[in-house]
Design a protein that fits this description.
This protein is mainly beta and 158 residues long. Helices cover 3% and strands 48% of the residues. The chain folds into two domains: 45 residues, no CATH class; 88 residues, Immunoglobulins (Immunoglobulin-like), CATH 2.60.40.10.
Length: 158
């Protein structure tokens, strides 16, 4: 896993034998075990790393009015009970333009106003709740509703 993995050597003296993984990948999910021997003492711990991902289809850039699909997947072992989507911190009603099914959200006609932070929240049968965020960027025209611009002859127009 090198060079994505590191251990803080200076922290070892204080009993901190943390492992840092940056960036985390989907294949990093699983059980991690550590053993540390110091003089005659042996310390051990184990941690399970779960992974949650939000993916976009088709991949960026998203063009205004072209359908898109956000998918939220997790390595969690329990049964998925509910998926909720939030846009810029507000719960998204899954009707009309937004359709949610089995961890996915389809936006039939994305507008410039749909750009921003999208967070999926997954709730499992054991009551665990996990979430991940995706920053959606949309290419389109973000100008006046009437795209007519007047300019004086001989001047510049933007």
């Amino acid at each position: 896993m090198r060079p994505r993995v590191s251990v803080q050597d200076s922290a070892l003296r204080n009993g901190n034998f943390s492992l840092r993984i940056d960036p985390v990948r989907s294949e990093d999910a699983g059980l991690y075990k550590a053993w540390v021997a110091y003089n005659t003492e042996i310390k051990s711990c184990q941690v399970e790393l779960g992974i949650i991902t939000v993916t976009l289809s088709p991949p960026s850039p998203v063009v205004e009015n072209e359908p898109l699909l956000l998918s939220c997947n997790s390595s969690h072992r329990a049964t998925l009970v509910e998926t909720r989507w939030f846009h810029n911190g507000h719960l998204v009603p899954t009707s009309g333009t937004f359709c949610s099914l089995h961890g996915t959200l389809s936006i039939l006609r994305p507008a410039m106003s749909d750009a921003g932070s999208w967070r999926c929240q997954l709730r499992y049968s054991n009551d665990d709740i996990i979430s991940a965020t995706y920053n959606l960027q949309i290419l389109g025209f973000d100008g006046p509703t009437n795209p007519v611009v007047y300019a004086a002859a001989g001047s510049a127009a933007n």
